[in-house]
Design goal:
With 201 residues, the chain is mainly alpha-helical. It has a single domain, classed as Fumarate Reductase Cytochrome B subunit (Up-down Bundle). 68% of the residues lie in helices and 5% in strands. It has eight helices and two strands. The protein has a two-stranded antiparallel ribbon with strand order 1-2.
């Protein structure tokens, strides 16, 4: 949700709930372990990290519909043309959650992770390898975009994902934050679904 630039005093306000932030960093760690264990020839660890990624993905998809405002897909997905226009614009950082460009990158990364994890579960080496290579490219682009935002646009995208807070114009409506207990229920459900799917394969 893009906001108009404001000359008002800026205040620190919550923009990312703990569940979304924890998902983000746990997923990053799980992906590192998955690639490292694959390259290091550790199949048991590779499978465990892959299953953990599946649980996280199921959680994030559900959280994208029932979670906090900034976690919902309907709040950060805009038209590709709007995403491109805002990507190159040199405007103050008044974005509450994901920018449209970051939103599309989030969906792309989640889709590639889903393709990689599901192909690993059903033992489809060709699709698994292709998805893994494409994911590396998407992650590299993601990191370059974060660096470009910091250097060129002077937007700090990392700190809010750590602290959950961001300085925004005082008139900015604070996003609604979902109940943490709901996040726990969704996570448990994601784990149960993963367990059932693995048991049936």
């Amino acid at each position: 949700m893009a906001l108009r630039p404001s000359r008002e005093i800026q205040l620190s306000m919550p923009v990312w709930d703990a569940a979304t932030r924890l998902f983000h960093w746990l997923l990053a760690a799980a992906v590192v372990v998955a690639y490292g264990s694959a390259w290091g020839g550790m199949p048991a660890m590779h499978r465990a990290s892959g299953l953990f990624i599946v649980v996280l993905l199921l959680f994030r998809v559900a959280w994208g519909f029932v979670g906090s405002d900034t976690a919902r897909f309907t709040q950060f997905l805009d038209s590709p043309l709007t995403a491109l226009r805002l990507l190159v614009a040199r405007t103050p950082d008044t974005q509450v959650g994901h920018t449209p460009a970051c939103g599309w990158m989030t969906v792309i990364i989640l889709g590639l992770l889903a393709a990689m994890a599901s192909s690993g579960l059903v033992a489809n080496p060709a699709v698994h390898a292709l998805a893994s290579e494409m994911l590396l490219g998407a992650l590299a682009l993601h990191l370059l975009a974060i660096l470009a935002y910091a250097v060129v646009k002077r937007h700090d995208l990392v700190r809010p994902m750590i602290t959950g807070r961001k300085r925004l114009p005082a008139a900015t409506p604070a996003p609604r934050m979902a109940n943490p207990l709901l996040a726990l229920v969704v996570l448990i459900a994601a784990g149960a679904v993963t367990w059932i799917v693995v048991a049936l394969l």
